[in-house]
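Milestone M4 deliverable, item 7.
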Amino acid sequence: MSVSKTTTKRLLLVLSCVLLLAGIGGGAYTIRKQRVRAQFLAWREEGMRAAASGAELDKAVDLLGRYLRRYPEDVDALVEYARVRPLVKSQDRQYLRDTMLVLRHLLTLRPDMMEQRRALLRLYGDFGYASEAVATADKILEAQPKDPEVLGIRATSLARMRRLDDAYRAAKTWAAVAPQDIDAHILVVEMMRANGKPKGEIEAWAVALEKTLTNPGSFELVRGVAAAAGGEQEQAAGWVRKAAATPNVDKKGRRRIGMAMDNLGLYRESLDMLKRLVKEFAEPAEQRFLVRRLWELEAWTELLSYPIPAGSELSNDREFKAMVGTALARTAKVEEAKAIVAELSAARQDPVAVAWGAVLGQILTPETADYRKCLDACLAGLKDSPTDAYLRCFAGQAYARLGETEMAVANRWSIVPPLTLDWAGRNRRSTPRVGRSFGLRSSARFRSQSLGMQTSKAGGARAMPNLARF
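Output delivered:
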């Protein structure tokens, strides 16, 4: 009997200890959980405050990012993070992937958030995600069928996908909704050409716009584009020059005139207009394109002496550094060029920078060129930046050096999308006149034989980058 009582007392004591320990453990866990939650809420509050101030965007991205990893369904925090994340840029373009990922997640939680869907559409359009852009645009157009920006991105994306008949209809819809938008009318002309419309029909369509296009120079520009589409290069050049001489042409119009000059092979005239734009507006987009054009024209001395404004994003741009490296190599400053190659090649988190490093390395040491390795680097860069026409062209040249002609032609053809390309427009990417980085002896012959492109009398291949010499 006493044994039984002793055992019972012991069991009660053990049970009490277990309950006490459980209570202590549970209390500690609860306290710890509350502290962790308080810490994350503090990060949220501080991050939202930093985002609202606009002065500490790095801090806002860091703190809101930490918070959202634990609380990914906080809609308000997601909205603010999606707003500020694209403003904190990085060389590896991680900010773009982060923004797209957050916007997609946000729209699964709140499909009705039209502003965020538009932001995602713009990202898709800017960076060449054509099929995603079309799907997103269709969703927006269900609610707002006459939105000109959405119609424009949709039409341009269809053209990128080479859905030419769909793109033609979409472009006409866009032009009807936005009758003063020169981009819409240019795309209509080019889709008419791509769909095999007769020369007379294209010209008649352009002539009928005389009373519609009232902005200075717009009608003359469309006439020039239409003439080029019909193969009348001299007539096209005359119309484009007339547009350029028209007084009071706005910035967008001058950009499009410069682009038309590029397509006609009037590169020096285009360069002069671009320099005037940079001098007048000094916007990063024009500055970047001017640097690219100097590189494409092999104006090495001018490129090396180009004044980079204080605080310009060009100062840390690795593509710009690669172009400077090329200029250094071509002006016998090999050691400085090698330093840039080393810097680019070491940027492992930025596939585009690594690809440029590989290309520049081939230029510096052609006797030990490893075209397969360079090709792999370019293809990796294209996965990260699928609309990069420079890397696409380099990949085509590498395929050619490796004897893979079909792939060479396919890659070089893919840099000529079925629409007019622009210096700095939202939905268009500039086509470079990229060089013979791998020692191709006759770029004009390669173009004409493998692609069957016409050559304009003004110089350069029609709608095809004219390769510079390397």
